[in-house]
Write a structure and sequence with these properties.
Layout: H1 2-15, H2 32-43, E1 47-54, E2 60-64, E3 70-71, H3 77-89, E4 98-100, E5 120-122, H4 123-133, H5 136-146, H6 148-157, E6 164-165, E7 182-184, H7 186-197, H8 204-214, E8 242-250, E9 253-261, E10 266-274, H9 280-301
Antiparallel strand pairs: 1-2, 1-10, 3-7, 4-5, 6-7, 8-9, 9-10
Helix pairs in contact: 2-9, 3-4, 3-5, 3-6, 3-8, 4-5, 4-8
Amino acid sequence: MVETARVRERWERIHAPRAARHLATDGAENFTGTFRALGKIAYSGSRVSASVVDLNSGKTLVAIDDRIVLPTASIGKILLLIEVSARLTARDLPGLGIMDKTPLDAIGDSGLWQHLQVPSLPATDLAALVGATSDNLATNVLLRQVGLAAVRARTESLGLTRTALLDLVRDRRGPDDAPQLSVGSTAELSWLFGALARNEIVDPVTSQRVLGWLSLNSDTSMVAGAFALDPLAHRGVDHDTLLVNKTGTDTGVRAEAGALRGSGRAVAYAVTVQFTDDNLAARMRVLEAMRVVGVDLLEYVHQARPEKTPQKH
């Protein structure tokens, strides 16, 4: 009954009405650039979804079609990392020791393990590879051991209904395969990163372990491109800026979700764009729009929180 109540509470929190707002009066919540940039590519035919939430107040700062479900490419790997971390915390370790790569797991594109000679690695190292380089081979090996059904069950237990890891990573998707690796809504993804930052996903140990893996992420090509961080080394605070994020890239899909803390505020954010990826210019327009979102986020988190006016008695 307690777990059921928690799931219900999470569901209500995620699906509560959200009013997007930006205030140009004091500049503290000015996301005009975000609305303009994302609106421009939306009018050109892209499907756009975005969500930004203040981690301290819980207020929704940006909500642009944040409930629609769009392909999110590798972002769904976060759900696998959560399941792996939860099993490590619970010491449910069968199969989560040294793991071998097999020909059935072979996959190209992102990741380092496919280029290394070592045939076996500990599960924790594989999770680190997923966090750092979105390693496809490491993802498939972990998923083979953990099982997609377990990841789905964990996702449902978190109250997520529009976000899912649908399949293992494939070089080609046939008619009998899931059409996408993962899907999600930005409302749920921003909530998920906020919950991780608050140590609310399963328990603090599980949340912190997942954040540690994700802090290794070397992809700052999208929203995070505006933060001026070292792509290969930003686990600590740099100029009062701390980032944890996950990206997803596929043909016609660019997605990013994360948590960003600055000198004054902190936010959880998610942006997904599905577009016609038929030329380089179209792709560059999408990336430029996502970096505008990053500029607004950076300005917001580095603006001091307004002091409360003392009440007179």
